[in-house]
Design a protein that fits this description.
15 helices; eight-stranded mixed β-sheet; 2 domains; elongated; 16 strands; alpha+beta; Rossmann fold; about 20% strand; five-stranded mixed β-sheet; BirA Bifunctional Protein, domain 2; RNA-binding
Length: about 425
RNA sequence: GUGGCCGUAGCUCAUCAGGUAGAGCACCGGAUUGUGACUCCGGAGGUGGCGGGUUCGAGACCCGUCGGCCACCCCA
């Protein structure tokens, strides 16, 4: 019988990587807070209909990528494939749609896709949503917030902002008709996927990667020509605000989104450092979704980022946080009496030095092997208890690392002196750290 | 869902007309009896992803399957 393995596309995030994850999460958390966004925590499972009605029945996500199952009550449930739908549902249900409402969330999402770099079946997103403001200043705020993230993560030189307006529902419908008419004439020249989408989701043909299809589109009607006046004006204002704030962007008239609920401003941050899955953040306006899901008519805008991709981007850009040792103090003790005393004293130390990472040697072994562990732990200092120390009421402090590379020293002090001695050593280290 | 490449110790990899596996790193122990990092010595660890087939004999060849990577697709 073979071992049980993780589900395909659902990977473990190992201790080597969690520091980078925590770093990204911490930066995001502080950033959204600094713009006044409040965290909301949402269920991972929702009624299947929620996603069908929001993302769109004919999208790839709903058609073939959702983890859908019936529960014991025979209700159809789905592991969320994205966060916006659940956030909107929660905002409606809990009366959060007073204006304006700024929310963010993070957590796992599930899509049944073929795994590859930057794409997994369980992946993690941070989502940022703002309800109740229809004016383009909110669009600009969203984009500025995301732009600041790249600055703070040190990857601003690796990402590019692409911007478009897909207009109102009716403008899009008119354009859609014109595009289909044009492409129908040339159906034979389209690639297979695009032919299929001609009937189901023709706007998605715009971002086809097929060169021949892209060439065909050069002569095709353009979306911008079909935009309603309000969308035009708002889009112009968004660009004006971005210009004023010094955020560079590229207008991409073929930028469309794969989820049906978007309108007006849409944007994507893309990078060339991640291979085929280069979209690292994407979003846009979805003014009709709240009403469509049964709420009042409330405009909204939001975006989502894939944390795996952010982590990959940091790695590709050599911007990962430096690995920190997991210990400051390592406690070496030999003999039952020594260990008893060490354990008790360490609890006192934890009271006296909150935040200090004190690792107790467990599992016995010789001094030699214990010191090997102490060294591996990365601790700066070992506290040593042996028979001699217990007999004389002392403890030995041995420095394992020295910033200056000097020979490490060792001293034995009375137990009553331990906290005082430690305090002095820690103060020295802080100074050394501050100056380095 | 489609295609290409790949799957040997914890990790990175090697070996060989096909004759039941090795290195480096990591791990454990030792080098005068209470002290790490360097060095030296020794040790443990693999039903060669899994299941079939060909063969006297397969990790090496064939098929299937699972998994990984990359691309298509999709999208964060």
């Amino acid at each position: 019988m073979s071992n049980i393995r993780a589900i395909r596309g659902m990977s473990d995030i190992l201790p080597d990587e969690t520091p980078t994850w925590q770093y990204v999460e911490a930066v995001v958390r502080e950033l959204v807070a600094s713009y006044g966004y409040a965290e909301i925590r949402l269920p991972i499972v929702e009624q299947t209909d929620l996603f069908k009605r929001s993302i769109g029945e004919v999208t790839d996500i709903v058609e073939k990528e959702m983890y859908t199952f019936n529960d014991r009550n025979d209700d159809s449930l789905t592991l969320r494939p994205e966060g916006t739908a659940g956030c909107v549902r929660a905002a409606i249900q809990n009366g959060l749609l007073t204006t304006p409402r700024r929310l963010w969330y993070a957590g796992p999402m599930f899509r049944y896709e073929r795994p590859q770099k930057g794409r997994q079946r369980q992946f993690h997103q941070v989502g940022v949503e703002a309800f109740g403001v229809s004016t383009p200043d909110m669009d600009a705020e969203m984009i500025l917030l995301s732009a600041r993230l790249w600055q703070q993560l040190g990857v601003a030189d690796g990402v590019q902002l692409q911007l478009n307006s897909i207009g109102s529902l009716s403008a899009r419908a008119a354009y859609r008709q014109a595009l289909v008419e044009y492409l129908q004439q040339r159906r034979e020249e389209l690639d297979e996927d695009s032919q299929r989408r001609l009937d189901s989701n023709p706007l998605r043909i715009l971002d086809s990667k097929n060169p021949q299809t892209q060439a065909l589109l050069d002569e095709a009607p353009v979306l911008s020509a079909y935009l309603d006046q309000e969308s035009r004006d708002d889009f112009a204002r968004v660009r004006e605000l971005l210009d004023a704030a010094g955020v560079a962007y590229v207008e991409n008239p073929r930028l469309v989104r794969g989820l049906d609920y978007y309108n007006k401003t849409v944007f994507e941050w893309v990078t060339d450092r991640l291979g085929a899955q280069g979209t690292v953040c994407a979003g846009g306006r979805y003014d009709g979704l709240v009403e469509q899901l049964g709420g009042k008519s409330v405009p909204a805008i939001g975006f989502a980022m894939g944390i795996e991709r952010l982590v990959l981007l940091l790695q590709a850009s050599a911007q990962e946080p430096k690995p920190e040792p997991t210990a400051d103090l390592y406690i070496v003790s030999a003999g039952e009496g020594a260990q008893r005393e060490a354990l008790a004293v360490c609890e006192q130390l934890r009271d006296a030095f909150p935040g200090l990472r004190i690792v107790q040697h467990t599992g016995g072994g010789s001094f030699k092997s214990q010191f090997k562990k102490a060294d591996k732990s990365g601790a700066r200092l070992a506290l040593v208890w042996g028979d001699d120390e217990v007999a004389s009421g002392t403890v030995t402090l041995k420095a394992l690392r020295d910033e200056s590379g000097k020979q490490a020293g060792q001293q034995t002090v009375a137990l009553e002196q331990l906290q005082q001695t430690l305090r002095a050593l820690l103060a020295d280290w802080d100074i050394a750290r501050g100056s380095s």
